[in-house]
From TrEMBL:
Belongs to the TPP enzyme family. MenD subfamily. This is 2-succinyl-5-enolpyruvyl-6-hydroxy-3-cyclohexene-1-carboxylate synthase. Catalyzes the thiamine diphosphate-dependent decarboxylation of 2-oxoglutarate and the subsequent addition of the resulting succinic semialdehyde-thiamine pyrophosphate anion to isochorismate to yield 2-succinyl-5-enolpyruvyl-6-hydroxy-3-cyclohexene-1-carboxylate (SEPHCHC). It comes from the Bacteria. GO terms for biological process: menaquinone biosynthetic process. Residues 222-403 form the Menaquinone biosynthesis protein MenD middle domain.
């Protein structure tokens, strides 16, 4: 058997096993050394290939696609710095628990560390930011090696998707020639439709005696809160609201919790907590005896202060499989269980628990006042907050909202009020970076789901290369670009008082005409200066095919004043109506 046949069968069995284990999408960045991987992926009948030229954009595109589908997506690139450009998205995938199967081509061992071109040390290139690394063998087509390559393919997908999901990395050294021969007989090997190494995984359920112990502890206290941070289980809304209704407890729901939107009841959901917990007096009044948190730590910084100031409160953090996502350092009891099953167990065993009705009503009253101010805010000119508020009200049902970091996610936290629409909210909140946001949103749009992206001008600038995917594949996406000509979030931080260096180091205006960038990538461009124009532009964008960008120009200093006045008005109204 010649080397080319060894190469072909080895790669075909690997790719076929990826498909049998459930992988349906691969994002490929062109290169020579990755030819065996790329061509075999493109040849397979059930795997869809997406060609993204820029490796950094490609990795974030795969990240967004995996977030939207909740399935592993493969990445394929050539050797050298091509693989290094994946790193930011791999860090984000690891931190936010997104399954990626990273397949990097490499020079053969004899060409490493000898000055060969496009050869860097790719062994464990991503360090501890992958769940599993494997240096693959040189291609062979013996029965033992075909079993080896199938086993590793199945393990890669299963490891990426299993437990707390995340990226895995397989490194493939290839010698020339690199082009497979797809005319070989029985190209895809095994005829069985089953995976080489199927996995049967059950749900984690807490033993009954431990549930009784938790309930016994809660019987001794009166005031608690249920918190739902960023998480992706769309079924949790029904379970968590049923539990809150039984126990008469408030739910502090993060905008990325998938709990503010949907068909479940929402009368116990407190979505305005970020606004009124800014007041230290209110945080003191709302001192809890216990906190039960599902999902990651919420976006809200006032909530962080709330937890820091209540270290004596009993805190439970519910995680699907494991982890220690508790950045405050408070004493915490971690509960590793399926969240929906855990809620069901508490409902079944804790039906007799009674908590303070006055406690719940206080939270509701504060939330009602807050929502009144958030919906009544108006003005002739658009502010960043009012632009996000108008976007939220205009979003189509059964769509996804992808949220940029810095100011965008904070305004969504403030203005995304409860809705019966089915809106799935996504963001890159693992590492909270501003890079790759456009590519991630386009990856989500690649599923055919209507996607709206809201982000700032610096995030837009950081990922202009990502716009090529929208043109190349005619992906439908609406982008609300809030342009305050710089890093608006820094205007809220202490650095803003350092006027001498603020603009150069933190404000960082780019002074770019983004319409030209939209034109370059063949998109539709709209500009809005008031709420009526914005609503009209957004509605038009949802009728347009491909890329649509709606730009809103704001002023950073005015934005700070507007937000602080809004928070002050909320605090004043609450102090008159609720707080003694």
């Amino acid at each position: 058997m010649e080397y080319k046949e060894h190469l072909t069968r080895y790669m075909a069995n690997f790719v076929d096993e990826l498909a049998k284990t459930g992988l349906t999408d691969v994002v490929i960045s062109p290169g020579s050394r990755s030819t065996p991987l790329a061509m075999t992926m493109a040849e397979h009948p059930t795997i869809k290939e997406w060609i993204i030229l820029d490796e950094r954009s490609a990795a974030f595109f795969g990240l967004g696609l995996a977030k939207q589908t909740k399935r592993a997506v493969a990445l394929v690139c050539s050797s050298g710095t091509a693989a290094a450009n994946y790193f930011p998205a791999i860090v984000e995938a690891y931190q936010s628990r997104v399954p990626l199967v990273v397949l990097t081509a490499d020079r053969p061992h004899e060409l490493r560390d000898v000055g060969a071109p496009q050869a860097i040390d790719q062994i464990k290139l991503y360090g501890d930011y992958v769940k599993w690394f494997q240096e693959m063998s040189m291609p062979e087509a013996t029965p033992a090696m075909l079993a080896y390559v199938r086993k590793n393919a199945a393990r890669a997908v299963q490891t990426a998707q299993g437990d707390n999901a995340g990226p895995v990395h397989l490194n493939f050294p290839f010698r020339e020639p690199l082009i497979p021969d797809f005319t070989v007989e029985n190209l895809w090997g095994e005829t069985t439709e089953e995976s080489y190494a199927p996995v049967i995984e059950g749900q984690r359920v807490i033993p009954e005696n431990m549930i009784c112990s938790i309930i016994g502890n809660l019987q001794l206290v009166k005031r608690g809160v249920i918190v739902c941070g960023p998480q992706v289980d769309e079924e949790l809304g029904q379970a968590i609201t049923k539990l809150a209704a039984l126990w008469k407890l408030p739910i502090l729901a993060d905008p990325l919790s998938q709990v503010r939107a949907g068909n479940h009841p929402k009368n116990h959901i407190i979505e305005g907590y970020d606004a009124f917990l800014r007041n230290k007096h209110y945080r003191k009044k709302l001192k809890p005896d216990f906190i039960i948190r599902f999902g990651a730590m919420p976006v809200s910084k006032p909530y962080l202060f709330y937890v820091q100031e209540n270290q004596d409160a009993k805190q439970y953090v519910v995680e699907n499989h494991g982890g220690h996502r508790e950045p405050v350092g408070n004493r915490t009891e971690f509960i590793y269980s399926d969240p929906v099953s855990f809620c069901t167990q508490l409902i079944e065993q804790g039906g007799d628990l009674k908590f303070s009705s006055n406690w719940l009503q206080t939270w509701k009253n504060m939330n009602h006042i807050t929502k009144k101010h958030l919906t009544d805010v108006s003005g002739e000119a658009l502010t960043e907050g009012s632009a996000v508020r108008k976007l939220i009200s205009t979003l189509p049902n059964e769509s996804s909202l992808y949220v940029g970091n810095s100011m965008a996610v904070r305004d969504v936290d403030t203005f995304f009020l409860t809705t019966s629409k089915n809106i799935y909210v996504l963001a890159n909140r693992g590492a909270n970076g501003i890079d790759g946001i456009i590519s991630s949103a386009l990856g989500a749009a690649a599923t055919g789901t209507p996607v709206t992206l809201v982000l700032g001008d610096l995030s837009f600038f950081h990922d202009l290369n990502g716009l090529l995917a929208s043109k190349h594949y005619q992906l439908n996406i609406t982008i609300l670009l809030i342009n305050n000509n710089g890093g608006g979030i820094f205007s809220f931080l202490p650095q803003a008082s350092e006027r001498k260096h603020f603009e150069a180091l933190f404000g960082t205006p780019v002074n770019l005409d983004f319409k030209q960038a939209v034109d370059l990538y063949g998109g539709y461009y709209h500009k809005a200066s008031n709420e009526m124009e914005l609503e009209k532009a957004l509605r038009e964008s949802y009728q347009e095919s491909g890329l649509s960008v709606v730009e809103v120009i704001t002023n950073r200093e005015e934005n700070v004043t507007w937000h602080r006045n809004l928070w002050a008005d909320i605090n004043n109204d609450i102090s008159k109506s609720v707080v003694e």
